[in-house]
Amino acid sequence: MWPVRIWQASFDSIYSVFLLCRFLMTQKFYKGSARKWFTLDSVEIAHDNQIVARFNVSIISAPAEYSFHCQLVGTSSLYGAKLIPANIEAKNWDVYLSEFQIQGFNIHNNLFSYASDCTSFFSPGIWMGLVTSIVLLWILTYGIHMIMQLTTNSRFDDPKGQVLSVPQTE
């Protein structure tokens, strides 16, 4: 097992309420990808060095040489990465992190490296465009197939056949 890294951020307000936010990360080598990955395991919110709320984290991992970025991280299921309450007190908290980016290992010059994003390669807009294009392509293919299957009546093409007579009287 690789080392655990704890990153802390403190928040101070005019009401002198001091909150400490801890991000507990681990780094592990995976044989399948032949590289080290870091995982954010949990987020702790502490007040006066006592843990008030603890959240387990889902989906937040990236190769160790990359950073992780997600537009929205929070306790709601609407966000890209989810914080899951791990204790009773955490259920009373609604945590929302906008433009969240974290890198636990291999930091150079205090800058984030290339970001592994939480959104998939195919966003909903791309999926809608692909599905619409496939449906339209199928309609076009079906139309061309139907046009190619059109045949004329052999009665009009056969010069030795009976002549078509159309009566003019009513």
From TrEMBL:
Keyword line: Membrane, Transmembrane, Transmembrane helix
Gene Ontology biological-process annotations: regulation of cellular pH
Residue ranges constituting the V-type proton ATPase subunit S1/VOA1 transmembrane domain according to the UniProt record? 120-158
Q: Where in the cell is it found?
A: Membrane
**Protein origin, superkingdom:** Eukaryota
Q: How does it sit in the membrane?
A: Single-pass membrane protein
Record-annotated V-type proton ATPase subunit S1 luminal domain positions:
20-105
GO CC, any one term: proton-transporting V-type ATPase complex
Q: List where the protein spans the membrane.
A: 6-25, 126-148
Coiled-coil boundaries:
none
Q: Mind listing the GO molecular function terms for this protein? A: ATPase activator activity
Would you identify the family this protein belongs to, as annotated?
A: Belongs to the vacuolar ATPase subunit S1 family.
Q: What is this protein called?
A: Uncharacterized protein
- Species source reads Chelonoidis abingdonii
